[in-house]
Design a protein that fits this description.
Layout: H1 2-105
Protein name: Methyl-accepting protein IV
Length: 111
């Protein structure tokens, strides 16, 4: 009987040690799971920040593109205006030449 009691005590002691070890492992798993959760929250926040920054950059690129298009239109209008001004200047020069020719045909009497 004494031997059975000793075995029982040994088994009980081993069971208690296993139970304590299991509790320690469970606590470590719980802590690590909590850390993983906190890291996941941090990563999610970073992803949201990156997505927001990407949206802002996309909007800025769109604005720059629009501005470049407007500058291009203005440059084209200026070029068109310059061409029109040159054509008008050429026409005025031709008219002035014609007018000068006509004026030379007039004779002024001397009284």
């Amino acid at each position: 009987m004494a031997e059975v009691a000793k075995i029982t005590d040994d088994v009980t002691g081993s069971s208690q040690r296993i139970a304590r070890a299991s509790q320690e492992v469970n606590e470590q798993v719980r802590q690590q799971t909590e850390q993983v959760g906190q890291i996941s929250v941090g990563i999610d926040q970073m992803i949201q920040s990156i997505a927001a920054a990407a949206e802002e950059q996309s909007a800025a690129v769109e604005q720059v593109s629009h501005s470049i298009t407007e500058v291009n239109k203005s440059a084209q209008q200026a070029a068109d205006g310059t061409n029109e001004t040159a054509a008008i200047a050429t026409d005025l020069a031709d008219r002035a030449s014609t007018l000068a020719t006509l004026v030379r045909q007039f004779k002024v009497r001397e009284d």
